[in-house]
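Reply to dn_fold:

You asked what the input looked like. This is it:
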Amino acid sequence: MLVGWHNLGNNDEGTRHDVSSINMYSGYNSRTLDGDICKVTLSSAASAATAPIDTGSTPLSAGTTLTVAGWGNT
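and this is what came back:
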């Protein structure tokens, strides 16, 4: 998996990490692509630049575990 990869046309961008597991969402529908999400667990810790997250009125502190989202199908 590439962490910190932003330009789909540049395979040299980001840092490569081994994946220890992939858990697909049980509600995934391949016909409609509803629920097209999965949990990817890396074999080692990764560091990447942070992105601002709108949490509404819920403050976040350092060390808070968050969900990471990407683009594409499955």
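Strands lie at 2-3, 15-16, 19-24, 38-42.
Hope that clears it up.
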